[in-house]
Amino acid sequence: MLFFIETVLSGLMAGVMYSLVALGFVLIFKASGIFNFAQGVFCLFAALTFVGIMEKTGVPWPVSFVLTVGVMIALAWAIERFLLSHLVNQEPIILFMATIGLAYFLEGLGDLMWGSDVKPLDIGLPSGASDWMLDTFDIYVEKLEVVAAVVAAALVTGLAVFFQKTRIGRALRAVADDHQAALSVGISLRTIWVIVWSVAGIVALVAGIMWGAKSGVQFSLSLIALKALPVLILGGFTSIPGAIVGGLIIGVGEKVAEIYLGPFVGGAIENWFAYMLALAFLLVRPQGLFGERIIERV
Amino acid sequence: MRLKDLAIGIAALAIAAPIAATAASAYELTIPSLVYRTGPYAPSGIPFANGYADYFTLLNERDGGINGAKINVVECETAYNTQQGVECYENTKNQGESGALVYQPLSTGISYQLIPKAEVDQIPIFTMGYGRTSAADGTTFPWIFNPPGTYWDLASGMVNYAAAVEGGLENLSGKTLALVYHNSAYGKEPIRTLESLAEKHGFKLELLPVDHPGQEQKATWLQIRRLRPDWVFMWGWGVMNQVAVKEAASIRFPMDRFIGNWWSGSEQDVLPAGGDANGYLSATFHAPGPDFPLHQEILEKVYGAGKGAGEKERVGEVLYNRGLIAAVWTVEAIRKAMEIKGSNEIKASDVRDGFDALKVDEARLAELGLPNFTYPVELSCAVHSNPGTILIQQWDAGAKKWTVIASGIQPDREVIDPLIAEDAAAYAKEANITPRECNN
């Protein structure tokens, strides 16, 4: 029983890490209807820039964090200026293809700027098992993942306040609801897009730091997007709480499956099991758990 | 007048160019280098590619190539992707006057795809310490070479090291050994040997696959926590190694009972874990570090001339040294091929003969500037992998360096040789191959 609790707890913690990546997808999809294939590379690029600035200049991490936020905002502006503004009113698949191109471009740019080596990320985040949990209950909980859970909670709270209480947040929601109506009341679509891509960039930076602390910052970070996809399918592409709950369900589901089902089928099932779980949800609720209901009028 | 000068100039160039080309048309040796400098496995691929390239550059700079024939290294990016690797092979195999002389795919997946192609194209494939283990049987695999050891030698050597620590092979009985492996052709390679060894010595083997790329391994390490194995062996690559070392430290698994194979023991694998990686073990077949005359020569003549493939501070890293020794053995096989043919105008089939007769003993290693760097290698028509001896190195997180703590560990030939013969025979039957006759 104790081991099962440990498995579920680890699944929940891993799920939070997936949610951090999924949040960036949701933000952009919610505001602009674009499925940003480059979100995983955003995490990589942001983390590379963050570590790269620290390595090259020797500045403390908070300074590097602020500078990287600046870089991500500049990147959002450049994406809007040189990519999205030329693709307004295009089919969603065109925009999706553009983000695939963007992913490859950013990966190459990151490589060119900071190199391909593994960059250890040491900013004082705790690592290893929680001694208290291990010694008192013999339950293994990773300290870094507890921090990630706290950061994710703070991030979601911050985003909720931003969306609900601020003028820009309301404008973002207006754009998400209806582009044309938002434009007609004087909301600048271009400004909104820059803001939302900037916020997604900052979320990517946080996710990149958390994942980078686990394995060092390296190019495989871009593949964590694959972990976010089932989370999105399950939670819904337009819901921030959906990204969190979806992450938790996928995290627990895949860990329980790997440990209790894996040995009977040769193991290494957690990746495809997450997609199977998402597929099962898709059959019942195509819009995901918290997604907006799809109504097609004919 | 100026037009006239120009016309005369062009005419002079037109006459002179072929003469100049003839003067510079010494026979060139084409050596394709399948590298991965991009993608998730780049941190492991880059240092190997740099070590491989730097040795050829040194020979071109210092000696004008090999016996006067310049070496043309043609890099092709595979991103550790099997399909891209095969495309690289097809695109480079006919390049240059010599054609591709030998391939070093640095991927077991690519190696498996190239085995039947090598037979048809008659190009040797040097899968140094990786690839298909039974390729060690030169009668069935005349074009594939995998010295200085196979994955089965490696697995057996690691078991023998664990036995030595436990106080003897008899003490392995009742123990549990977990294999954490990359869920790919590469990662699955040692399973057969470990199963045979488990049966022979009475230890329990637990198999724990990790899917590509291995960024998330929580479930694997929870299972290790539950199973509480006495030893964990790892067949990892790329990010899988870094995450595994960190996860092992997190669950407080003793690092001196955790052994990575020789592709899971580079600086890149342990540095991200910081102090947590202290004491981690890995197998290897050569010394770490830059303290050899050859390294000093590379630093002076290649990096000093601004022609180094990477950063000079990284010369001597584990995977750099691995690429370097791969190039050294390749060049020695080419020298042997030239010696056998009596000419430096060799083709791939001649290089195969060179590999068949490859002998790099301690005296030769010393001549090459690598005294006591690795074990002597001696191949033959029938034996394409040798000697299979391993070393164990341990990571010192404080000093940030590897130290060799055990050497001369031999594999269990009694178990491995019949397995190789059996697997080679099965391949010969499946591919409808008649093994060649060998006198040695």
Automatic annotation (TrEMBL), chain A:
Q: Which InterPro entries match?
A: ABC_transp_permease, BCAA_transport_permease
Cellular component GO terms, alphabetical: plasma membrane
> What GO molecular function terms would the record report?
transmembrane transporter activity
> Which Pfam families does the entry mention?
BPD_transp_2
UniProt keyword list: Amino-acid transport, Cell membrane, Membrane, Transmembrane, Transmembrane helix, Transport
Please state the span of the N-terminal signal peptide per the UniProt entry: none
Q: In which domain of life is the source organism classified?
A: Bacteria
Q: What is its main location?
A: membrane
Q: How does it sit in the membrane?
A: Multi-pass membrane protein
**Compartments, record wording:** Cell membrane
Q: Which residues cross the membrane?
A: 12-29, 34-53, 59-79, 91-110, 146-163, 192-211, 231-252, 259-284
Any Gene Ontology biological process: amino acid transport
Family designation: Belongs to the binding-protein-dependent transport system permease family. LivHM subfamily.
Protein name, per record: Branched-chain amino acid ABC transporter permease
> What is the source species?
Stappia sediminis
Automatic annotation (TrEMBL), chain B:
Which keywords appear in this protein's UniProt record, sorted alphabetically? Signal
List the signal peptide residues: 1-23
Q: Which InterPro entries match?
A: Leu-bd, Peripla_BP_I
Record flagged with keyword Signal: yes
The UniProt record lists the keyword Signal: yes
Segments forming domain Leucine-binding protein = 29-396
Q: Which family, according to the similarity comment?
A: Belongs to the leucine-binding protein family.
What name goes with this protein? ABC transporter substrate-binding protein
> Where does this protein come from, organism-wise?
Stappia sediminis
